[in-house]
Structure of beta-N-acetylhexosaminidase:
Amino acid sequence: MKKLFALLLLVCSGISYACAKALPADTLPVRGFCIAAPRAEGLPSFLRFITTELAPRHVNTLVLRVDFNYQFKSHPELRDPGSLTEQQVKQLVQTCRAYSIRLIPQINLLGHQSWAGTTANLLKMYPDFDETPWVKMPAKYEWPNADGLYCKSYCPLHPGVHKIVFELVDEICDAFESTAFHAGMDEVFYIGEAKCPRCSGRDKAELFAGEVWTIRNHLAGKGRALWIWGDRLLDGKTTGLGEWEASMNNTHRAADLVPKDVMICDWHYERPDKTPVYFAMKGLSVITCPWRMPENAKLQLRDMYDYRTSATKEMKPRFQGMMQTVWSDAESFLKEFYGTGKPQKDTVNTSANCFRAVFPR
């Protein structure tokens, strides 16, 4: 009888786990997908992807990295060539609304104001905002380099930066009819630099937290929530996570200083580290964000279920779910997803396979 009971327990446990694997999307508050906004010419294909792939997989949140891929009226000097029109954004809004998908735009704030050897539009047009104007963009970018240049940052204490930034944020949020905005704020290597006339000598954690508060308060005044990536709030040295997925310049102490109503997007791509527990214990809501390793993503998904199952009633609401991230442009991802692009060397660890693993059809 005891053997039969043990067998029944084993079978039931297997069924329970199989069901959890089969329907990972249906029991998480946030079932997200994050990708660069399509260019204007690629919009029809992307709209079909929303209809035929995101909706059937029960994705309920779409974060689009817009940056300057929009025909801003407030600052036309910051537009990318071939960027989305307001009418095209409304097509995205209508399609997402039809499938109850929350649409959240992103503009990279604070960090990521350059990439490799190219300065992004904000600092290109407003060079006075640069936190490190003495660091010149190289003709050929290499890492590591003598300047420690990964991406440029704007100076959070520059008296003119927020007027421009918030005009962009308000316009894009109005166009997307969004209740939240993603400010990026990841991989900030330049902050509180000694040569900056405004930031020199200031605490880097306080500077980072101050910028989070400034953005959050502006959004809250218009009934919108703030989302950010979580890496700058983790201690890269103590955890061994390093300078990419965590901070090595002491911004991690900002985890105790930022507002508690900010959504933390906790990304880990090489290892399924269990840092959502850390954020939740700080009183912050958190979602786990994989990229290209399906097996890691499955472990992260299982962890998120375990957190929600085992947490106290106070902690459980802070474990908000999963968001697949894609770090190519939308057109390249669609080619990868549908197998119409160039064959990849690694056919297992891809963002498309990771997406399928987290959100099976």
Remarks:
- The domain at 57-358 is CATH 3.20.20.80 (TIM Barrel).
- The first strand starts at residue 30 and ends at 36.
- Strands lie at 30-36, 61-65, 102-109, 114-115, 118-119, 180-184, 225-229, 263-267, 285-289, 319-325.
- The chain has one domain: 57-358.
